[in-house]
Amino acid sequence: MKSVAINGYGTIGKRVADAVAAQDDMKIIGVSKTRPNYEARTAVEEKGYDLYIGIPEKEQLFKDAGIEIAGTVENMIQEADVVVDCTPGSIGPQNLEMYKKAGIKAIYQGGEDHELTGLSFNAISNYDDSYGADYTRVVSCNTTGLTRTLYTIDKIADIKKARAVMVRRGSDPSEVKKGPINSIVPNPPTVPSHHGPDVKTVMNRIDVTTMALLVPTTLMHQHNIMVEINNNVETEDIVEALEKRSRVLVIDASEGLGSTAELMEYAKELGRNRNDLYEIPVWRESINVVENELFYMQAVHQESDVIPENIDAIRAILEIESDKEKSIAKTNKSMGIL
Ligand SMILES: NC(=O)C1=CN([C@@H]2O[C@H](COP(=O)(O)OP(=O)(O)OC[C@H]3O[C@@H](n4cnc5c(N)ncnc54)[C@H](OP(=O)(O)O)[C@@H]3O)[C@@H](O)[C@H]2O)C=CC1
Ligand SMILES: O=C(OP(=O)(O)O)[C@H](O)COP(=O)(O)O
């Protein structure tokens, strides 16, 4: 069985760890932290993960806190077949040197630039590109959301170009020091935001341009998408295609799911681990084809939509499964994805 190390046990890392633990064809070697806080203690005492430290000079702090550590990140990666790097964006380049020295494969997250690995990943659009690769990068939560639906629509509608306005959550739920508060912030203030060009790194056929703004909410991003299409398709054809695609949910505002808050409540109803919603919900009422233009609105649970993609990326990079559909189905089943 292949071994996986998780470097960085924050919002994404702890979810990837739980998802790896739920698979029967891979196992966790350990996870890493730099601070001996509640997440470090829970990782060891509740989850039973071996904990390694990202900054060796801080070893005494973990000892003082009575949190058992198994070694340093350098020790951890010696034992693994692949490291999933879930450290904050931009720490990646220095880690890549360490991974190269250790001769270990690595999967990065969307906070790093595509150029770091030269290869980016989305399970449905380009699984095969990362098969057997040394390094890849799972694109960001918003890019993942755009890719899942645009790829599906392109298959039946032949997209000419796509434009999207991205409403981004201001911070993750536990990030108490971040904002914005009482404000809407164009972010970045320039156009395009990274999301549209980033779609091209996993689906280079389509011209996607995006602009983004931050709003004072912590749960879910929301996308407003306009697509010019070449094929003569009806609204019902788009609905049917999205309904058939796994990791995408066509949901009804009329059933009480008309907001991001209600969607997060729905995830609780489903009894999901950490209340996560791995799928991209698309509002049925918003899907509308007018002549050669399609309009739709969707949401993204930023903490969780990339987690199944990381599991598939592990199978691709380690050549555990060559058939993307089989990997996706296996991941979906293990995580209860609809
Ligand atoms: N949050 C989100 O909504 C999403 C994030 N991403 C991407 O995922 C990546 C991780 O983001 P996220 O999980 O939010 O980040 P977090 O800040 O929640 O977690 C980062 C983790 O990395 C650890 N860490 C910090 N510095 C170092 C270091 N120098 N060496 C080793 N480990 C370190 C932190 O440990 P400690 O806390 O102990 O310091 C923490 O466990 C980023 O690229 C981000 O862009 C992608 C999709 C969605
Ligand atoms: O990958 C994400 O967003 P993104 O798709 O807008 O880059 C995550 O929500 C992290 O965003 P952040 O960089 O605002 O913490």
UniProtKB/TrEMBL annotation:
Keywords: Cytoplasm, Glycolysis, NAD, NADP, Oxidoreductase. Pathway: Carbohydrate degradation; glycolysis; pyruvate from D-glyceraldehyde 3-phosphate: step 1/5. D-glyceraldehyde 3-phosphate binds at residues 140-142, 195-196. Pfam families: DapB_N (PF01113), Gp_dh_C (PF02800). Residues 170-197 are annotated as: Disordered. It catalyses: D-glyceraldehyde 3-phosphate + phosphate + NADP(+) = (2R)-3-phospho-glyceroyl phosphate + NADPH + H(+); D-glyceraldehyde 3-phosphate + phosphate + NAD(+) = (2R)-3-phospho-glyceroyl phosphate + NADH + H(+). One of its GO terms (molecular function) is NAD binding. One of its GO terms (cellular component) is cytoplasm. Its EC number is 1.2.1.59. Residues 2-141 form the Glyceraldehyde 3-phosphate dehydrogenase NAD(P) binding domain. Its main location: cytoplasm. GO terms for biological process: glycolytic process; lysine biosynthetic process via diaminopimelate. It is found in: Cytoplasm. NAD(+) binds at residues 11-12, 111, 169, 302. HAMAP family: G3P_dehdrog_arch (MF_00559). This is Glyceraldehyde-3-phosphate dehydrogenase.
